[in-house]
Amino acid sequence: xxxLWGEGEKKVSKQVFDWTxxxxxxxxxxxxxxxxxxxxxxxxxxCGIITKKEEKILxxxxxxxxxxxxxxxxxxxxEFEDVHSCVQFLVEEKVGNVAKKIHTARSRNDQISLDTRLxxxxxxxxxxxxxxxxxNIIAKTGADNKxxxxxxxxxxxxxxxxxxxxxxxxxxxxxxxxxWRFKDALKRVNILPLGSCAIAGTSLNIxxxxxAKKLGFDSISKNSMDAVSDxxxxxxxxxxxxxxxxxxxxxxxxxxxxxxxxxxxxxxDDSVVTGSSxxxxxxNPDVLELIxxxxxxxxxxxxxxxxxxxxxxxTYNRDMQEDKPPLFSSIQTIEKSVSVLGLVFSLIGFNRxxxxxxxxxxxxxxxxxxxxxxxxxxSFRDAHRAVxxxxxxxxxxxxxxxxLSKEELKKIHPELNMDIMNLLxxxxxxxxxxxxxxxxxxxx
Amino acid sequence: xxxLWGEGEKKVSKQVFDWTxxxxxxxxxxxxxxxxxxxxxxxxxxCGIITKKEEKILxxxxxxxxxxxxxxxxxxxxEFEDVHSCVQFLVEEKVGNVAKKIHTARSRNDQISLDTRLxxxxxxxxxxxxxxxxxNIIAKTGADNKxxxxxxxxxxxxxxxxxxxxxxxxxxxxxxxxxWRFKDALKRVNILPLGSCAIAGTSLNIxxxxxAKKLGFDSISKNSMDAVSDxxxxxxxxxxxxxxxxxxxxxxxxxxxxxxxxxxxxxxDDSVVTGSSxxxxxxNPDVLELIxxxxxxxxxxxxxxxxxxxxxxxTYNRDMQEDKPPLFSSIQTIEKSVSVLGLVFSLIGFNRxxxxxxxxxxxxxxxxxxxxxxxxxxSFRDAHRAVxxxxxxxxxxxxxxxxLSKEELKKIHPELNMDIMNLLxxxxxxxxxxxxxxxxxxxx
Amino acid sequence: xxxLWGEGEKKVSKQVFDWTxxxxxxxxxxxxxxxxxxxxxxxxxxCGIITKKEEKILxxxxxxxxxxxxxxxxxxxxEFEDVHSCVQFLVEEKVGNVAKKIHTARSRNDQISLDTRLxxxxxxxxxxxxxxxxxNIIAKTGADNKxxxxxxxxxxxxxxxxxxxxxxxxxxxxxxxxxWRFKDALKRVNILPLGSCAIAGTSLNIxxxxxAKKLGFDSISKNSMDAVSDxxxxxxxxxxxxxxxxxxxxxxxxxxxxxxxxxxxxxxDDSVVTGSSxxxxxxNPDVLELIxxxxxxxxxxxxxxxxxxxxxxxTYNRDMQEDKPPLFSSIQTIEKSVSVLGLVFSLIGFNRxxxxxxxxxxxxxxxxxxxxxxxxxxSFRDAHRAVxxxxxxxxxxxxxxxxLSKEELKKIHPELNMDIMNLLxxxxxxxxxxxxxxxxxxxx
Amino acid sequence: xxxLWGEGEKKVSKQVFDWTxxxxxxxxxxxxxxxxxxxxxxxxxxCGIITKKEEKILxxxxxxxxxxxxxxxxxxxxEFEDVHSCVQFLVEEKVGNVAKKIHTARSRNDQISLDTRLxxxxxxxxxxxxxxxxxNIIAKTGADNKxxxxxxxxxxxxxxxxxxxxxxxxxxxxxxxxxWRFKDALKRVNILPLGSCAIAGTSLNIxxxxxAKKLGFDSISKNSMDAVSDxxxxxxxxxxxxxxxxxxxxxxxxxxxxxxxxxxxxxxDDSVVTGSSxxxxxxNPDVLELIxxxxxxxxxxxxxxxxxxxxxxxTYNRDMQEDKPPLFSSIQTIEKSVSVLGLVFSLIGFNRxxxxxxxxxxxxxxxxxxxxxxxxxxSFRDAHRAVxxxxxxxxxxxxxxxxLSKEELKKIHPELNMDIMNLLxxxxxxxxxxxxxxxxxxxx
Lengths: 444, 444, 444, 444
Known about the structure:
Four copies of one chain form a homotetramer. Chain A is mainly α. Chain A has helices at residues 14-20, 23-26, 30-46, 52-70, 83-95, 108-144, 164-189, 208-215, 224-229, 232-258, 286-309, 324-346, 352-359, 366-375, 380-396, 406-412, 426-432, and strands at 149-154, 157-163, 191-192, 219-220, 266-267, 349-350. In chain A, a hairpin with a 2-residue loop joins strand 1 (149-154) and strand 2. In chain A, helix 3 (30-46) runs antiparallel to helix 4 and helix 14 (366-375) packs across helix 15. The N and C termini of chain A lie far apart (67 Å). At the A-B interface, strand 1, strand 2, helix 7, helix 9 and helix 10 of A face strand 1, strand 2, helix 7, helix 9 and helix 10 of B.
C-alpha cells in the first residue's frame, strides 16, 4: 500500500488500508470532486501558479473522465484510498506528469469539505423538488375528495369533524416547513471551504473568490481552521431529514390506522400492498410501515454524527470521514420515502360508507353546542359544563342528543333550544369553523 | 381531583392526577401564559365576544398576578394540573365569574403552543446575546495575546504553526453559525398558533391577526390541525442546542488538553478549578469537563423529542406534553454553559515558555518548504515527496533540518537552497499564510 | 466557597460552585452514602487505622443522621458541593474532630461509584417487584376474560383469531424478559469499587473483602483505575429501562387503538382518563399516551450517558458526574409507568359486542382453510394459492365464503369441501392452534 | 413483480418491490436460513407432515446450495424479495414441486426471527473470541513493559504514578465486562421462535422441541405473538456493541493523546499510521481515530432500533425488517475495530525518555505524603490540608519538595520528616499501593 511520506519507509498494512479507505462509500462524490477540481485548476492558472496550457490539458482530462462517469463508461480497476486519489489517478493516466500540479494549494481536508457541500446542495435541492411534488399529489387527493368530512382526532379520540382535505393540508404544512428548513440549512452549506488547505491557508497567492464564483457559492469561509473542522452543515441536514422523517412517520401512521378493518376509511391499491407467506388473505401496508420504520435510520444517522463530533479537539480528525455514510443514507432515505409515499397517495381511495359510520358519533358536535351557548351569552366555562352534563345525561339514559325533548334540554341549560339539532351534522359543523386556519375557512 | 366533564361522574384518581399533571415543570411558562391571555381577551373584546368592561377587569387581574410573579410575591398554595389552570385559578380568585369567559375560542392545545413559542422566542434571544458576549471575550483573549503562535493540529498531531488568535477565531466562527442557525429557527418559532383551538378552529368570530400583532408574531399558522400538533420548532431548537453544545465540547476539549502537564500551555485561574478529596495537589478543570459532559444532556433531549413525536397520529396527543422538560433543560444548559465558559476565558492565562517548546518541532515547517519548491516551479507532488524524503533523512541521521549543509539539501532536491532555513520559524510561517481565511491574513 | 487545597489561595467563584455542585440532584444517595460510610469506618477500625472508640462514635453518628433522614427530620440549612460533603458535615457537626478520619483510604471517586451501585441495586430490585405485580394484574385481566377471542394483527391488519389472554400474555413475556435482563445487569452492579481510592489504590493496609461482605457485594473490583472510571453498570440499566419503556409503549399503543371509537374494544375507567378544556365530551387516554411519550425520556437518557462516556480518556473525569440525573430519571420513570399501567389494567373493561363485530371478518380464517388443505395432502404453497383465489373470488362476487356452494368450492380447489364452513368461527380457530406457544395451547 | 395472493390481481409495482425488498442486505443470512430450513423439514418428516423420501430430497438440495454458498459457487441471477424466497427458489430449481411443501407450519415472521438469532449467536461468539485475543495482546504489551511507570490521570491531570500495565489492565477489565454482557445477552438470543408461525401457532401437529434440539437452542419461545414481535435480542446486542465501542473509543483516546508531540509516550508503527496529501511530515493515528469515530455508528444503530420499535402495535410490523442493517453494521464494526486495535497494540512502542520527563512532576507524590502522615496518626483531613499547604509553599517559593529543609517541613506540619524524600519517586509510590486492585498489588 502506498504511503504519503518519504521513500524507504514501511508501507501501510493491507488491514489498515482496508480500515481507513473511504472509497467503498465516497465514490458517489466523483462528479463533485471533478467539478471542484476544474474550478481549482482554473484558479491556479488565473493566479499564475500553472500555465494556461497546463490548465487546458487538465480541464480536458477532467471533463473526459466526468463524461465517462456520466455515460456509465468509467471503469475502476484498482483499489483507491478515496475518491480524490481515484480522480487524481484517472487524470494522471490521461495526461501524465502535469497532473502532479493539481493538488497545489489544496489539501484533502478542504477538498472533501468542498465535495460534500456540492453533494449536499445538489441532493437537497432534489429533495425539495420531490417534496413539492408530493405536496401537489396530496393537495390533489384533497381536492378530488373535497366533500369528504371525517372525524378529527386528538388523543386518538373523536374530537370534531373536519374536512378530509383539511386533515391532508396539515401534512402539506409539515412538508412546507421541511422545505423552508432545508432552504435555510442550504445557506450554511453554500459556503466555499476550498483554499483553507490543511489548516492554516497557503503561502501561495490564490484567489478563493474566483473559485467561489465558478462553483456558485454564496460566500467564502473566513477561518481556515474552522473550515476544515466544520461539519455543522451535515448535522443540520441530518436534523432536517430526521424531522422530515418524523413527519412522514406520522402521515403513514394515520393511513395505516385508516386502513385497519375497524376504520376501513381508505383503500390502498393492490400495486402498493404486499402479501403474507402464510396467510393467503393478507394485503399489508408494508410500504407505509417501512417509511415509518426508516425514521429510525434518520434518527440514528443524526445521533451518529453528533456522537462522532462530540469532544473532538480542533481541527480535522479522521473520525470525520465517517460523516459520509450517514449523510448519504439520510439523503437517499428521505428521497425514496417521499417518492414512494407520493405513489401511495396517487392511488389511494376512500370508503365513504365507512367514514360515514364514524361520523354518526354525536359527541363530535359537543363543542359546537358549547359555542352555541357562548353566542347566547353564556360564559364558555358554564357552557362547557352544561354540555358535559348533556353528554352524561344522554349516556346514562342510553339515548342520543337528537332524541331529546325541549324540556330535557332546558333542564340541562335554559339557553339550550331545539335548534341545536341543526348542529348535529358534519356539514354544518365544518361550515361554522370559519376562523383563519379553521376547517371551514374559505380557501381560494 | 377535578374532572373536565359532566357532573356526577367519577373523579380522576390521585395517582393519575400526579402522573398527568405538568405543573411541576411548566410553571416557568407563567409569564408567557399571562401575556398570551391578555392579548386573547383583548381580542375577544375587540370582536364583541366579551364586553369592554369585562376586558378591563380581566386585563387588570392578569397584570396584577404577573406583577406578583415578577416581584416574587406569588404564592402557590395548591396543586394544579398545569400552568393554565393555575393562571385561571388566580384570576378567578381575583375577579370571580367573569373569569369563566377567558377560555373562549381557545383550547389548551393552541394555548400551550402559544406559551411555548413565547418562551422559546424569549430565551433563545437571550442565548444569542450570551453567545455574542462569549465571542467578545474570546476575541479579546485573542487580541490580548495576538503575538502568540502555537502549533496547529490535525489528527491531534503537529500540523502547521498558527496564531493563537486564529485558533480562537475558529471558535468564534462556530458560535456565529450557532447564532445564525438560531435566528433562522426563530422564524419558525414566531408564528401564532392561537385561534386554532382544539383542532378545527372555532365557530366564533375571532381575529387572529389582532393577537399576532399584539404579541409580535411574524405570521399566523395556516392550518388548525397542524398548529396544535406541530412541535418542529421545539425540535429545531433542541437540534440547534445540540450542535452548539458539540461546539462547546470541542472548545473545552482543547483547553483541557492544553491544561495537561504535558502541554502546559494554559493557566486556569484558581477560582475556576476544583480540588480532590484525596489528592491534595489537584486543580482540576471540572468546569470544562462538565460543559463537555453536558453535551450528553443536549443530545439526549433531542433524541427524546424526536422519539416522542415519531409515529404519532394526528393531531395533538398527550405524549407531546413531554416536550417541555427537554426544551427547558437544553435552553438552560446552553445558557449556563456559555456563561461559565465566558468566565473561564476571561481569566485564562497562557504559558509562553511551554508553547515555545512545542514550537521547536521543525516538522511544523515541512509544508512551507514544499510550497517553497512549488514557487520554484516544482510540481506540488514532487515537492511533497522531496520534503518527505528530507524528513526521513533528518530522522535517520538523528539531526535537524537547520543543521544540514547545502550539499545535503541539494542531494535531496536540486531546488532546495540554504534560504529554506529562513522558513524554519513560526513568525515567518504564519506571515506567509496570506490567503483569505489563512492564519496570516491581514484582519482590520 | 471552600477549596480543597492549601490555604491562602483563591476561592472558587460562586458561579463555578453552582455549576459544579451535584447536591441539587445527588441528595437521593444520602442513605447509601451513610451505609457505605459505616461499612468503611468499621473496616478502618478492623484494620487498625482508627480505634474501636472512634469507630463507635462515628457509627453512632452515622446511624443518627440516617434516622433523621428516614424519619423526615433531617434539616439541610446550607449549600453543599455534593451528598458526600453534606454527610461529612452532619457527622462532623455531631462528633467534631474524629470525623476528620472518615475520609481515609477513600476518594470521592470510589465513594460515588459505591453509592450509585447501592442505589441501583435497591431501586432495580423495586422495579423488578413492580413488574411482577403488573404481570399479575395483566394475567388476572386475561383470566377474568378468558373466553374473549379477538382478531390478532400483523401489519395492523386482521391476521388470525387469538384469545385476548394470549395477546395479553405476550405482554407478560416482554416484561419477564425485562426482569431477566435487569437481573443479569445487577450482577455487574453488585461489585464493590470502594478501596480503589482516587485511581491507584492506597498505601494503607485496608480490607476490601470485609467491606464487600458488610454491604452484600458479590465480588470486588479488580483494577483500581477501571473501578473509578467505569459507568457500564449505569448504561446497562439505562438500556434495560429503554427496552422496558419500549415494551410499555407498545402495550399502550394497543390499548389506545382499542380505545378508539372505531375499535371500541375497551372501556377505560373514568378515574384514569382526562378531559378537554374546550371539548366537553372528551375522555382521553392521557395516562397511556404519557407512558408512551416517556419512552422518549428513557431513550434520551441512554443516549446522554453513551454520549458523555464516549472518547473520555482514562480514568475519572468530571463529565461522569452527569450520570446521575439520567439514571435517577429513568429509574423513576419506569417505576411510575409500571405502577400507573397496573392501575389502568386493574380497571379495564372489554366491550364484547364491538369485539364480535371485528371477528365477523371471514378472512381471519383463510390460514385455517389453507392448513385444512395441507392436512389433505396439498402442498402448503398450492393450498396458499388456492385460498388466495378463494378470497379473490368471494370479493369479486361480493359474497362471503359461508355463502358459497360445494360446486364453487370445488372449482377453486378439488379438496375444498363444505366442512370448511366449520372453520369459519373464532372458537374453532383458536382451539386448533395447539402447537406449543400457540393460542390454543393448553395452559395449566 | 410476484404477489402472494390470489391470481388475477394487480401486481406490485417495481418501485414498491424495490422499496420493500430486503434481499440487498439480508443475503448474509443465507447459511442460517438453510440450516433452519433443514431442521424444519426434518421435523415435518418426523411429525408425518412430509414423507421420509421428501425429507431426503429436500435435505440434499439444501445441503447442495449451502455447499455452493460456502465454496463461493452460488450464482444469484435474479432479484428476490428476501433471502427466504431466494433459498426457496434455489431448492425448487433443484427438486421441483416437492419444494412447495417446505413452507408448511412456518411463516416468514418466525423464520426471520430464527435466521437472525442463528446469525447473532454465531457472530457474537466470534466477537467474544476476538475480544479475548485483543485482551491477550494488551496483556502481553503490559508484560513486555512491566517496569514502565506512568503518571495516572484523573480529569486529564496528573494524579498518582501507576504501572503502565495497570493502566492497560483497566482496558482488559472493560473488555472482560463486554464479554460477560454479551454472554448474558446470548441467553436471550438462544431461544427458538420457529413454530410460532404468523402469529397464532398452527393447527398442524408440529414438534418444536425437536427443532430446538437440532439447532442447539436452550429453550423455546412460549407465546407465539411475542415470538414474532420480539426484537429485544437485537437491541440488547446493539446496546452491548455500543458499550463496547465506547470502551474502544476511550482506549483510542488515550493512545491518541500519548501519541501527541507533547506527550510523546508511544511510537506507532509506520504500517499503522497514514500521511497527509499536503503536509509531507504527517504520520497520523487515523486507525485509532476511526475506531473512536465509529462509536457514532454503534450509538446510531442502537437509536435506530429503539426508535423503530417504539410504539409499534403488536405483533409483527414491516418496520421490523429494518432491524437487520443496524444489526449487521454494529456486529461488523465491533469485529473489525477489535481486530485492527489488536494490530496497533501488537506493534506499539513506548518512549521511556519522554515518560520519565512526565514523571518528574513531584505533585504525583502528594497523596503518598498525606498517607505518610496518616500512618503517623494524623487524621486524613488534616494530612490532606498539610500537604496542600506544602504544595502551595513550594509553588510560591518556586522550589521543589526535594529541596526543602527539615525546618521548612516541620513548619508545615510537625510530623513531616526528611524521610518523605524517599516517597518522591515512582517506584516507591507504586510499590506502596498494595491494596487489592491497587497498582502495587502482587499479581501472579
